[in-house]
Every structure is written in structure tokens, then in C-alpha cells.
Specification:
With 356 residues, the protein is α/β, with parallel strands linked by helices. It folds into 2 domains: 196 residues, Isopropylmalate Dehydrogenase (3-Layer(aba) Sandwich); 138 residues, Isopropylmalate Dehydrogenase. The chain has 12 helices and 12 strands. Helix 10 runs antiparallel to helix 11. The longest helix is centred in the first third of the chain and has 19 residues. The protein binds 3-isopropylmalic acid (IPM) and magnesium ion (MG).
């Protein structure tokens, strides 16, 4: 089969990790007889430098017309002082909105070989965990009305959290369907003891749940959830939550897997075209040094094969190769324990490719 993939390498370590994933995809294509065509597009700081805006029209059109998008990371100190509307992050939000990608799947599990890199107590790590965060991605406070105004204490700024019934319904369906294919257990996370938007969220999530009798759904307040995630992550199967809570909790979930450098994500809408990216950022401190961990991006490419191209066996092959490198004790700097030698980004990629 043949697929057109838009590459948005972005900033910082973005180009290095996307190049790694491309090499892995090329090898998979060779092995399984597929052709992947890659077209690069600028977004984020790279686009600001070139065009003065973070998300050029050409990038939006190119991504829309592709079979899927593979993205590295955007942002960096160079662009941190720009006004909100033209910050690099705006590119990511704009792409998610333009492509209608309202679902963000962020799986987090502990690799047996990496138990030593986990920051939790050994007895908690021993239980293992395997969860997926279903984060709503095109609504909530990220996209609500915001601005500055004169308040009673002088100038103030505001951002609004708003969710429509439709937005909650569609993400709830995704969560229940995801749970049906897993252990049948959804935890919906909100702040319903304070926020009206959360009360609507809770109501709708349960209403949708009536259509999924085989799946259980319990509610959890976000502060408690943040605590339960480090107390006993094994209790979670599918977490469904709003855009901002999902952003925060997925970083927490990633850290307890050993490193944020391992977590992949898929952003999906109604169609087949998705956006696949590591959940970590552009790591400007190590950019261009060939030190980054390419695994999160390589696993994001595997998710692309699975979710957008329906190439399950090919996705399995990548995931197995990643498992093998970890079991063989190979480590990039972020997951190094003790004084083993750290592999560079390209060395780690070579090792994964050789195990495909
Ligand atoms: C993420 C990131 C983004 C987000 C930023 C870069 C806008 O943190 O994908 O988790 O907040 O969604
Ligand atoms: Mg984040």
C-alpha cells in the first residue's frame, strides 16, 4: 500500500526525532512492502522564522491533504516572548482544530525492563500499570474565550472553560469504545465539586455510558486523580478527561513510566487522517546534540500505522523492536540508571531498526 505522510518536524529536538521515526517507517515499508511518501511542512518557531507566523496556510492544506501527520515538537526560548497569537504553540492548537482532531490518545504503561527508571516506590512499580488517557483536544479552556479587561483591582486576564454537550458526547463515546477493547473500565476525571462545565461533563459521560453496558464508569475529581496516579496507577484502565486536565495528567502519567521520552500520542477526529506526536516538548536544552530519546516519536509512528493505516502487524513490529532494545539494556540518557553508557538518538534508532 502507499501512504502520504506530512512531516512537521518543528523546533528543538523535533527534526532529530522525526528523522529517526522516518528511518524506522522506511524500514517497515521495505519489510512489509509499503511505500511511504514524506512531505515536510513548517510549523512553530521554524515557521515564525521563515514566514512570521506559526502556522502557514500551506502547512494546514498539506496536512489536510495527507493520509496522516507526524509531528516532532514546537516551541523554544527564542519565541517565548512573542504574543500568544503568534507563539509556536499556536501552530499545534491550530492544526488540531483545523484537522478536527478532538480525541487525543495517550497510552502510558510500565515496561518491565524500565522498572528501575520509574520514580515510584518498588512495591508500587511491581504491580505494573497499563492505562490510556483519552484527552479531549479541541475544546475547553484551550479554545474558550480569553482576554484582558479592567476588573475591580485594575487590569485582569481571563480564560474560559466551556464544553458543549456534543463535545462531551463524542469524546465519551471514544472512551467507552476504547475501554471495550481493553479492560472495560473508564474513570472520568473532572472538578465537578467546583466547575459547572465539569458538572455537565459528568452528566453527559454517564448518559453516554448507558449505551455501553459492558463498561463501568466511575468519576474522580482531578486533584484526587493526580494523587491516585502516583499512589496506585494500576487501578486505571481508560481515563477520559478535558483538554487541560488531560494535558497535566498525561505528563504525570509519563513520568511514572520512567521517562516522558517514551510516550507516544495519537490525535484523531472523525476521519482516518490523524496527527501523531510524542507527548514531550522540543527540549531546547539538548537540541542538535543527538542526545534525544527517539522512542516516543517512533512509537507515535507505530500508532499512525495502527490507527490511521490499519497496519496492525507493522505497528506490532515497531513496538516489539522497542521492547527488545529496552530488554537488551540499551538506553538513551533520559532513561539511564547508574553509569551505563548512553546511546545517541541515531544509535538508538539504528538499534531499533536492526531489531525490526
Ligand atoms: C501537549 C503540549 C501542548 C498542549 C502545548 C505545547 C500547547 O503540552 O501536547 O501536551 O498543551 O496541548
Ligand atoms: Mg502537555
Amino acid at each position: 500500500m502507499e501512504f502520504n505522510i506530512a512531516l512537521v518536524k518543528g523546533d528543538g529536538i523535533g527534526p532529530e526525532i522525526v528523522d529517526s521515526a522516518v528511518r524506522v517507517l522506511e524500514k517497515v515499508g521495505e519489510k512489509f512492502g509499503h511505500k511511504f511518501n514524506f512531505t515536510p511542512y513548517l510549523a512553530g518557531g521554524a515557521a515564525i522564522d521563515e514566514y512570521g507566523i506559526p502556522l502557514p496556510e500551506e502547512t494546514i492544506t498539506g496536512c489536510k491533504n495527507s493520509d496522516s501527520v507526524l509531528l516532532g515538537a514546537v516551541g523554544g526560548p527564542k519565541w517565548d516572548t512573542l504574543p500568544g497569537e503568534i507563539r509556536p504553540e499556536k501552530a499545534l492548537l491550530g492544526l488540531r482544530a483545523a484537522l478536527g482532531l478532538f480525541t487525543n490518545l495517550r497510552p502510558a504503561k510500565i515496561y518491565p525492563a524500565l522498572k528501575g527508571a520509574c520514580t515510584l516506590r518498588p512495591d508500587i512499580v511491581e504491580n505494573g500499570f497499563d492505562l490510556v488517557i483519552v484527552r479531549e483536544l479541541t475544546g475547553g479552556i484551550y479554545f474558550g474565550e480569553r482576554g484582558r479587561r479592567e476588573g475591580i483591582y485594575g487590569e485582569e486576564a481571563y480564560d474560559t472553560e466551556a464544553y458543549s454537550v456534543m463535545e462531551v458526547e463524542r469524546i465519551a463515546h471514544v472512551a467507552y469504545k476504547t475501554a471495550q477493547k481493553r479492560r472495560g473500565n473508564v474513570v472520568s476525571i473532572d472538578k465537578a465539586n467546583v466547575l459547572e462545565s465539569s458538572r455537565l461533563w459528568r452528566e453527559i459521560v454517564h448518559k453516554v455510558g448507558e449505551q455501553y453496558p459492558g463498561v463501568t464508569c466511575t468519576d474522580m475529581l482531578v486533584d484526587n486523580a493526580a494523587m491516585q496516579l502516583v499512589r496506585d496507577p494500576s487501578r486505571f484502565d481508560v481515563i477520559v478527561t478535558s483538554n487541560m486536565f488531560g494535558d497535566i495528567l498525561s505528563d504525570e502519567a509519563s513520568q511514572i513510566t520512567g521517562s516522558i521520552g517514551l510516550l507516544a500520542s495519537a490525535s484523531l477526529g472523525d476521519g482516518k487522517c490523524g496527527l501523531y506526536e510524542p507527548i514531550h516538548g522540543s527540549a531546547p536544552d539538548i537540541a542538535g546534540q543527538n542526545k534525544a530519546n527517539p522512542i516516543a516519536t517512533i512509537l507515535s509512528a507505530a500508532m499512525m500505522l495502527r490507527y490511521s493505516f490499519e497496519l496492525g502487524a507493522e505497528a506490532d513490529a515497531i513496538e516489539n523492536a522497542v521492547n527488545k532494545v529496552l530488554e537488551d539494556g540499551l538506553r538513551t540518557a533520559d532513561i539511564l540508571v547508574g553509569d551505563d553508557k548512553a546511546l545517541t538518538c541515531t544509535e538508538m534508532t539504528d538499534e531499533i531498526i536492526s531489531r525490526l
